[in-house]
Amino acid sequence: MQRFAWSLWLSVVVPLRFKTAAELWKVHKCTQCIMLIQNYGTLCSPHGDAHHNSSSIDFCLAAVYVSDAQFNRNIFFDTSPQAVSLYLLYNHWAMQMIVYVFIFVDLALALFEDPAVIPMPIWGTSLVEMICLIVFTARLFHYAKVIPRIRFWKDPKNICIIVIILLSLIDIIIYGSLKSTGYNAVRWSRVLRPLLLVNVTEGRQLRRAFRSIRNALPQILYVFFLFMFSMLLFSLMALKLFGKRNLFTVDGEPYFTNFLDIVFDLYVLVTTANSPDVMMPAYNYNSFFALFFILYILINTYIFMSVFLAVVYNNYKKHLKEEVRQLVKSKRQKMLRAFAVLQQPGSGEELVVSQENWNQLVHLVQPDISNAHRELLWSISDDCNKSHIGKLAFVQLPDLLNIQVITMKSRPHPLHIWFPLLYDSSVSRLLRHAVKHKAFVYIYDLIILVNAIFIGLDEENPLIAYAEWAFLALYLLEILLKLYTWEPRAFFAKHQFWNWFDSVIIVAALVGAIVNLCIKSSDGYTSRQILDIVLILRVLRLIRVVDSIKRFRTIINTLIKIGPTILTFGQLILVVYYIFAMVGMELFKEKVKYLEADSTDPYKDSCGTPLLRGTTFAKNNYCKNNFNNVVSSFILLLELTVVNQWHDILSASAVSHVSARLFFVFFHIVVVIIIINIFVAFILEAFFVEYTVEKSDLQTSLEKKIEELELSVDNEHDNNLVDDMETNENDMGPSENAKGKPSLMFKIASKRYKTVDGLLQRMFEADLSLEDADDMDDPNFSNITFDSV
Amino acid sequence: MQRFAWSLWLSVVVPLRFKTAAELWKVHKCTQCIMLIQNYGTLCSPHGDAHHNSSSIDFCLAAVYVSDAQFNRNIFFDTSPQAVSLYLLYNHWAMQMIVYVFIFVDLALALFEDPAVIPMPIWGTSLVEMICLIVFTARLFHYAKVIPRIRFWKDPKNICIIVIILLSLIDIIIYGSLKSTGYNAVRWSRVLRPLLLVNVTEGRQLRRAFRSIRNALPQILYVFFLFMFSMLLFSLMALKLFGKRNLFTVDGEPYFTNFLDIVFDLYVLVTTANSPDVMMPAYNYNSFFALFFILYILINTYIFMSVFLAVVYNNYKKHLKEEVRQLVKSKRQKMLRAFAVLQQPGSGEELVVSQENWNQLVHLVQPDISNAHRELLWSISDDCNKSHIGKLAFVQLPDLLNIQVITMKSRPHPLHIWFPLLYDSSVSRLLRHAVKHKAFVYIYDLIILVNAIFIGLDEENPLIAYAEWAFLALYLLEILLKLYTWEPRAFFAKHQFWNWFDSVIIVAALVGAIVNLCIKSSDGYTSRQILDIVLILRVLRLIRVVDSIKRFRTIINTLIKIGPTILTFGQLILVVYYIFAMVGMELFKEKVKYLEADSTDPYKDSCGTPLLRGTTFAKNNYCKNNFNNVVSSFILLLELTVVNQWHDILSASAVSHVSARLFFVFFHIVVVIIIINIFVAFILEAFFVEYTVEKSDLQTSLEKKIEELELSVDNEHDNNLVDDMETNENDMGPSENAKGKPSLMFKIASKRYKTVDGLLQRMFEADLSLEDADDMDDPNFSNITFDSV
User: Which residues of chain A does B597 touch, with a Cβ-Cβ cutoff of 8 Å?
Assistant: First the structure.
């Protein structure tokens, strides 16, 4: 198996380019480590008496623990050298990437399977799916080698993956044989595919989200039952009040005569989708009846829906807090294990880790960290300059590593090196001063606004077309001027989001415009696609204005910060949508057809079916809202999430299938009542955290240290260009500084979190800090830790 | 002026019956107090040396301070005896009631003014309005006599009322004279009427809500501008992408060609009202264009709307917290003033209030409090049995008074007194035991469920009609059995909500059914109105099931608890709706007509105007959604608040008025984005408080004391009937108890707040407690207090 994994690694990972030199170095170091373990494995196993003279293998093991703690991985791997080396490979980014690529290939198969967007033969899709399944099996096999056998079989997510793989295999065989003999068959195992995303080792965030939902369910259910009870009472009242009055709806159907129809109508009213319509017949009959609906909307739409949000929010927060506490606990456990591996007897009874060992460990965990940065971290850990640290300080290491410290080097401008006289001339100085001036920003904001007006005007007017070139030239000039003023590598540093944004947009617009011009001049007509892209790029350019208004920037920054977690919700939504899309496609495919305008179908105006003739659905041209393939299913489900008109969309499916109502209502409950509320809850929480929580303790101590050492960047004097600057390179460039500042400076990117867990931990920091202290003193806790090593 | 106020008091208040004997006593005591002040006013003014021998006037003044502190009144009244007596009158509940009655009469005038629901001549409405204005002026005059002249003119709410009264007068005169000479005129001053609700002295809650909104506005505005910016960018992109593609909407109009129309359409899309419709032409043209709308909805509907909620919630909470802190501060100030009036030198340097004085004060502040209850409160204040209390303990008094302590007296059943042998017979005992058994509740829950099914069936079936009588009899039997088992006065105690609910519903249903039967047997046909009422009562009966399921009860209890504050929001909504309704009526009245089915109008099918022929508005029978009178205006505004189809409703007004869009969008921003979000925020906060905050310190100390004295009601043994029991009477009935328990028992109604401020204070308690302690030790603060007395 190990050989297989190695060959897989060699054949798949190596051809992929390594991200950076640092990454390459890390892999190299890890390989070295593995070699070492393989050669001296039995000799220096961590079970032996290796506490005093830490060997390379110990460092490797400790590094794995630290990096697990840093990224909150909770895998109880074997501590045998072979397992550790396999574990290192298992956690390699390329391996994780492969798994995700194959999961998405597997999910994307729905595009090609019947009902397909792009039809493919059954053997083709089956073959691809088989390959995917083999990859998943291999990954699982790899995992089984890493962790103890008993733990493997106790873990429900492994069992889940095995069951999914087996069921998919069975389904492929049944479906293939039935289809080849001409029978109809259902690809039921497709519903299981998105569950892979949840059960894969890397799906921690997603699993946590699902767990939170599951834990919140009982509370939600009680409110839901009360809500249903209120709805049923109102329905009964509506039946008694309106059923005997011989009223008719706009479509001429009897109004509120059937109890189940009333229940459904009132459920739709809760979503406000049929808001005035359902009331109008009663209101037209007697104005007083409006009271009934007002009361209903007040109680069920406003109060109950708010209560749902409150319950979902509260439970979600509560359970998430519990989960994060567990996370912090297990992080500490891992760090204590790492400490146990590297510990040496210090002065007195205390066990300590020496600075030398610590340096080596950090070097192994994060090879791309600069020496200065590492020394800074050490000086925080070792407050008293004893050149060794105790357990408490050591445990902080992953948190310290997770704080993004920006190492800034003041480097001279290349033009300054090449043409010092010219670059330092008074004209050049004036120019650079002008570019740095606030007025420069304002002028360009004004240009953008004028440009917005020009974009709004008709672009076929030749004058406007010429003006567009002028604007492009102005934007290019801006970038060149900025590059002239600031050091290019600093300008295009990793996290200089707006600089990158500007440059990419402008260059793309330039390329697009030139391509467009070429096509136009050669063929004589404009390519619509390229023109579309050029137009979109033009509009996107205007976003830049946001950056120059401080208040806007803070809101945008908060939004960007919660971006990664919104991605977790994206996955959550994907899983739910995919399952509903698969079920929906099997139930409702081809019930409604979208026919082009030139179709000769006799039911062209009613979506290809006589059943829909004259319905709102057909009248509103909704025919494309169907379950005929994955893409339109997803768009349809999105429309249902937005809620409006969902009863009309439903009606189309309902004409052929009575179960449609159940399907649609269930979707509404799951997505709108539960998931969207959790989404809102999360955004609320994230904003509150931004508004209230200050920097964490560790960050402030780090900042204090930086200030002590007079290495901090003065925020007053540096504009926002420097503000966001980050360079992670290791090498030390030639240092030179006019103002006498140190050439190397640090700044804490306090507003950014490396991991989503970091954000979550910060959310509940206030509540956790006290309990954390308790954990540290808990003797049982420590014992468990040391026993297990 | 004083004589005027007195005669007003005599002529208006006295004819109104006094609520309870306690209330009567209070008024009597106050009048006595006033007499005293009038007779010896100059002699015993609180400015004199009255600190050692507290006179009645001092008590009166102290009582006013305490009661102000208890109800959070912030009126800086003159401390002269005359002013105090006037102030007592000013705060009398009947006076406040009169003001509110006249405000609602003033507001209700819109029903009779053109465009009227029930037309009335102009002189009639003008006369009523004049009377209202006179009452407001009198009230303001009264207020001016109570507080110092300078304070009166510095208070913006007084200026506001004066301006409103003057403008209303001017408007009446102008309108009357213009109308009488045949010109057209606009009643513009009607917009100002609801502002009276805000500016009246009693509108504290409402003013606070408006202040919170005003303070949150800047933050909301920044997010709103960013949101608008994003919307404009998307609109520009839509114009460029779709404008040149010759697409058409379902109605055959060009699709996305006019920039302003696009902006409006996309604004409507944020509210999801035109959700799939606006997307369909682009989606039908090319599936990829759906991406544009998905992105738009994700960013603007989901993310921005959540951000709005977050910002509104956060700012509202922050400012409310500040307001409540001010409230607590001024409450303490008032108590310190009261203390200064009653203080005596105690042992050492400390100034104290003796138990005797304290008793007299409490008696004056809350005459309906029982002696036992008062002693209980004293024993909490005076921890060390020193028979006098210091400043710190004294200041707690209003909080203590605000805690609802339920005094329970075990009283024998009247039947037990009248027929002791019969009532204590074994059959009677068994019966009472059976009624108290859980199975009794379950049996009646089952009966209710069966009844629900019967209600759902057709009531014209004679069998069902007879069954209905059987159910009525069963319910009556239940009430009688319960009355037999429990003491009737306890059963119908003030806060026995469910007992009252049951009895009222059943008796009403019985009366309705009998009346219905009589009419039917005499006239031979059924009165629809009475039948409606009977049917509604039948359905309402089913609500009782909620009470027997514990989880439901807790949710309902939380909802009931936040009820009073929802009323504040009701007033807020009323003010905003009224203003918009008035403006809307002037702008859009008679543009759209609702015509009965037998009308001969040629444009009957298009709401009486050729402009609406063939529009969705006319097709959907929306004609009654118009601004032709106050009632339909309010219902229309409610429909706009629910949001769905609001663009269709708007279109009807827009055909005649271009400004309609502005009006409707402005309404949407004010009501949906700001007020509804605050409403949601409040419900969220209230639920979170319920989930997390435990009883406040004072309540627990009170509970401890009750337990110490062995006076607490044992929750285990008493079922929920006793659980909610409360009697406030003063007299001590004959005590008798079988189990040897004390005949008088206390229980804290911890789940109820006497005032909305109490709930708010509890909300922010955790944050306030520390700062409160600071206030107490602040010497400056005390000085200010003593100086001002």
Answer: none
